[in-house]
Amino acid sequence: MSRETLGRAPPRRVILAAGGTGGHMFPAQALARELLGRGIEVALITDRRGGGFGPDLPQVETHRISAGALAGRGAFGKLKGALQLGLGVLQARRLLKSLRGDVVVGFGGYASVPTVLASQGLALRVVLHEQNAVLGRANRLLASRADAIATSFDQVDAISEAARAKVRVTGNPVRPAIAALGRRPYAVPGETDRLRLLAIGGSQGATVFNEVIPAALCRLPEGLRRRIEISQQVRGAEPEAVAAVYRDCGIACDLKGFFDDMPERLAAAHLVIGRAGASTVAELAAAGRPGLMVPYPSATDDHQTANAQRLAEAGGGWVMPQSAFTAANLAERLESLLFHPALLARASRCARAYARDDAAAHLADMVCNLSGDNGDERRDPEEAAA
Prior knowledge:
The protein is an alpha/beta fold. It folds into 2 domains: 3-172 and 357-376, 3-Layer(aba) Sandwich (Rossmann fold), CATH 3.40.50; 178-354, Rossmann fold (3-Layer(aba) Sandwich), CATH 3.40.50. 42% of the residues lie in helices and 16% in strands. It has helices spanning 22-37, 74-99, 113-118, 137-142, 161-164, 176-179, 207-218, 222-225, 239-248, 262-268, 278-287, 303-313, 327-338, 341-354, 359-374, 381-385, and strands at 13-17, 41-47, 61-65, 103-106, 125-130, 148-151, 167-169, 195-200, 228-233, 252-256, 271-274, 291-293, 317-319. A 7-stranded parallel sheet has the order 3-2-1-4-5-6-7, with helices on both faces. Helix 1 crosses helix 15 (359-374), helix 7 crosses helix 13 and helix 11 (278-287) crosses helix 14.
């Protein structure tokens, strides 16, 4: 436990509210691991699609409730979402009474909304964690109910003036194996060394990457092409077609729909081409790997562009909007970077300097401090509900 929490009564049990994508679940899992290490019990409330933390953290009780999207398509979709949300609040309220936690931590996304709403009137403190550089819609809805808001970036848009006093920057926790990469030096490629690229598009890849990246690499000078090795996530049933393009250009490639050895591939990469989800940006910084980021243009509130811009402004990478992500433009950018490895080395240093190490510990400190602030004034949930 850090010095910040010494002398405070730690929470007996913390309830995590998270679901949906890995961008919400990874930091929740990291916080759970940190709290368990401090002897604090943890329970997870997720939606009916949520898989929980699996065998990695069997100590964490997982409970599933109904949850509906905050904005449905059309009147029927909105009505369905409202009904699911209402049912989820009732289910979460019953769970919170029985679990008898002290603090609820919401990680954004509609799966977290019922549990945070249900905490009202139960004498539970509420922490929200925002992974992106734009406060998500779920967290915007819940911000007025929160006692504290933890952010991953120094500058986060769409936070109301009333909520800004609750904000503290903790960073976005990353997986331990990736955090460990920051302690390993970046291997600057020499004039004749292999150039290792890693292309990732989130958990399911990005179709546009399948088209643009191979065409761009084939435009590079032959001497450069012969040095390139690319590991690329290829979405759908296209691996053989993409591999054929690389073979015709003399480029070594390793294509898969999903990489289950991401830490090793990230460690080997000289340059990463990817989207700009919160987890991707946090992992690039933690590992100290330069990134050429292509924000997903349909991301809610264009938050991926904001994420990418924060890292680029710190010197840790470059932003290429998808509207400009053509084979010609990408080839030009890659040629300028790969022929000048000093630029890659500088971006690696800047990315690493931008990282917030021990984000999970800082977030856990925030939770423990908040619990301590309640002191002896915490009421029994059954009494609070009476």
